[in-house]
Amino acid sequence: MTRTVVALIAALGIPVILPAQQPPAQRVEHLYPDAEAQYGYSQAVEVGGTIYLSGTIGGGATMEEQVRAAYAKISMTLARFGATMKDVVKETVYTTDMEALDAANAVRKAAYGGHAPAATWVQITRLLSKGALLEIDVTAVAGSGAPRAP
């Protein structure tokens, strides 16, 4: 109704001054301050309930170990914003070995606990961190994974 009233007033040639809309506040978490400063990025940013996590790598010698460690870091980061893996709506995984990632998919699926976000997997030749086999970035909407009433 408000838009209709504003449109009607404007149609009559009466100037309409609406209050300025403030952009949503940003909350930034710097988990790796040295690397973030060196490369000019933030590891995690929340705007209006949407959480954007930069690429996360995990330690370990095998793909399975790195997948497990990366999702543990992602889960820990989401918790800082009051979110869980069930709030993840989109993930992108960059890997240097698609077959090894596919073989470790059970670990990935376990990290999501039955939740299945939109996902993209991309094979690349290398990552910034030497020895990293994968890097995962996610977008989550805090509270979106909460159970809904029927």
Walk me through this protein's architecture.
By secondary structure, the protein is of the alpha+beta class. The protein has a single domain (23-141), classed as RutC-like (60s Ribosomal Protein L30, Chain: A). Helix content is 33%, strand content 25%. The protein is built from five helices and six strands, in the order H-E-H-E-E-H-E-H-H-E-E. The protein has helices at residues 2-11, 33-39, 63-80, 98-103, 105-112, and strands at residues 26-29, 44-47, 50-56, 88-95, 118-123, 134-141. A six-stranded mixed β-sheet has the order 1-2-3-6-4-5, covered by helices on one side. A hairpin with a 2-residue loop joins strand 2 and strand 3 (50-56). Helix 3 (63-80) packs parallel to helix 5. The longest helix is centred in the middle third of the chain and has 18 residues, at 63-80. The chain is elongated, with a radius of gyration of 21 Å. The two termini are 30 Å apart. The model has no long low-confidence stretch (mean pLDDT 90).
- Termini separation: 30 Å
Provide the CATH topology. Answer: 60s Ribosomal Protein L30, Chain: A
| H/I helix tally | 5
CATH superfamily, called what? RutC-like
| SSE run | HEHEEHEHHEE
The CATH top-level class label:
Alpha Beta
* Class computed from helices, strands and strand pairing: alpha+beta
Number of domains: 1
Average pLDDT works out at 90
Approximate shape: elongated
Largest sheet: 6 strands, mixed
**CATH architectural label:** 2-Layer Sandwich
**What share of the residues does DSSP label as strand, in percent?**
15-25%
Helical content (DSSP H or I, runs of 4+): 25-40%
| Largest sheet, spatial ordering of strands | 1-2-3-6-4-5
Question: Uncertain regions: pLDDT < 50 for 5+ in a row?
Answer: none
